[in-house]
Amino acid sequence: MSNASHRMQVAFVSSYPPRECGIGTFTQDLANATRNTDGRPEVRIAAINEAGGLHRYPSEVIFRIDQGRPETYAEAARFLNRQPVDVVSVQHEFGRFGVWHDYLREDHLAIFLDEIQKPVVTTLHTILPSPHPTVKVSIRNAIDKSAAAMVMAKVGAMILTDDYQAPPEKIVYIPHGMPEIKPSGRKRLKAQLGVPDRTIISTFGLISPGKGLEYMIQALPKIVDRHPDVLYLIAGETHPDLRRHEGEAYRNRLQQLIEELGVGRHVAFVNHYLSKQEIIDYLLASDIYVTPYLDRNQITSGTLTYALGAGKAIVSTPYVHATEVLAEHRGILAEFRSSDSLANSINLILDSPDEKQKLEQAAYEYGNQMAWPHVGRDFAILLRRVVEGKPVVYTDGDPYRLIKE
Predict the structure, then answer these.
(1) Are 173 and 216 found together in one domain?
(2) Domain limits for position 244
(3) Cβ burial, residue 398 (10 Å; 0-12/13-18/19+)
(4) What is the residue-averaged pLDDT of the chain?
């Protein structure tokens, strides 16, 4: 990828830090990885701001979209049309681009796409199989009006072509990125946390009922019976959207369950929004990482990607992303909503140090391929090919493989 005469200008449309949002953190990481590739693309952001949110955004944010006002999506498109932007990266999540309830569906992405005159690459963070007709129309419209659609799981690409009849020549698979992590320092980090002699099982990220944490807590008595030094670390604050509507009701229910089961000595909360370095440190201190999530259709998980890159032994429920990345013995899949299955899977690892080491090695070897420098390079190649009007994927063999020549 070389065009020394022009420095590519990229505009991302997404939530963005300091707003506390997983999509925003991903976008910041992807933007940084993109600007660090050959040609040093320039990056600008149109930030999607939550209703009533006041944030001191960094200088790369050149426009604020009011999530509660559909007309500001059109205003953002018209603003970007006037800027020296070569390509627009839309980071799509339903909750950031509309209202999606059974009784009310408003597609704000369609409003944006009707106005934008720059080529668009849309990253789809949620891909629902067997979609509701309005969801199907929305996603097909996004793909049809985009030069390319990026997915972060190969099964997502297959769902788009099978269930949405999307043209495969537009669908590009690039994995979810993660920091480059050297899997070391477990004893030192445990000592820093004040738990040098504990076996740490961890889950991190914004807390909400969809994370299924209650099932992992219910699994603890069976785990502790065999491994009494276990500590389950729940790291992360309650999701801000949930907190605005329900306060800390979910966390309080978890606390009550912990008391009822008598496992207070075996659970610790880290109740704040985690920096990337904190996430890495807590992961490196962990012996097992667990995602007991409840949504079978979850297509991506940044936390799971981090755990792979950190070389962790992983136990997860079989949502779409986990089933794909934990194949070939890179982790163990437990049943949905089953504390017994979670306990049996974790005990299987803790009972066998050799098994644990094999899982860690397989996870690291796979996860290392998804480090941000690799992902940023591929994403920049995708953007450049779109800007130059070139095909983005092979049409033979693997139809979702990015052309890199």
Answers:
(1) no
(2) 186-369
(3) exposed
(4) 93
